[in-house]
Amino acid sequence: LEKLKTLSEKSKGFCLVMLDSEEDSIKLRGSLTNYRFCAGCILKCYSLSERQKIIDKSETELQKETGPSEYEELSGRDLYLTDPSDSLAVSDNFGTVYIYSTDPLKLKYTFERFSPFKVQWSQNGSFLVGFNERGIMLITASTPQKTSRKFYHSGVLHCDFSPCERYMLTYSCTSTENSQKMFLSIWDVDFNSVPIKTFSGAIKPFTVFKWSFDGSYLSYVSDDSLLIYDLNTKSLVAGTPMRIQSIQSAFWSPVSNDLVYWEKGVTESPSQIVLLSVPSFEKKVLRQVFNMEKVC
Question: Is the pLDDT score of 63 beyond 50?
Answer without folding.
Answer: no
